[in-house]
Structure formats: structure tokens, C-alpha cells
Amino acid sequence: MFLAGKWAPVCSEGFSDGAAVVACKSMGFSGAEPAQRGCVDAGLCGVEAPHLSNVECLGSESSLLVCPHVEGDDVYCAPEESVVVHCTGDGDAAGSPEAPVAPQWGVALRG
Q1: What are phi and psi of 20, to 5 degrees?
Q2: pLDDT per position as a tens digit, 4-33
Q3: Cross-strand bridge partners of residue 6
């Protein structure tokens, strides 16, 4: 997710299906597939540890940050535990004010 002016990975632990929908919609997609994989399975891990975990959205929220979550020093996830979200529909991550062009890790987009 785009946080404090830079991309930050999100932990797969406790990441709800609704959180996947919110993440994808914030990038202009219509939705997300319900199953998320870790970045190891997708080959998209970075070196930075996740900044959020246990993100539990219903799917109608405007941002992952308004959903219940754990943030900062209370997040105990290694970089290889970052979530990968598969978005559906036509999206444009570059067109979203919240989400400039995504890095090669952390979020996998499929339209």
C-alpha cells in the first residue's frame, strides 16, 4: 500500500478478503479474487518488512487504513510474509491518487 509517501508491504497474516477488495478498488479495479497468496509463492518478495498486519475490511471501506489493523512496531512479519492481491476488472494504478505505479513486490495485479 502507499503509506507516508512511499510503498509499504502489508502482511498476509489476518488479511481479509474484504481487504483485498479495498486494496484493488483503491487502485481503480472493480474487485479482487478472494484467495491471496504470500509473496514467496508469487515470486514478488521485497526486502522491506510489512508495515500493517491483521487488516480486516468488509470491502466497502475507502482505504485499508480505516479498517481494523495492526501498524508499526506491533507488526511481526518478515518480508516474505507480504500479501499478494490479485485484482479483477480494468484498473489503472497510475491513475489513482492513493496509489502511484506499484513496485515489483507486494501487490500482483491481474485484470
Answers
A1: -65, -40
A2: 787 788 999 999 999 999 999 888 898 898
A3: 3
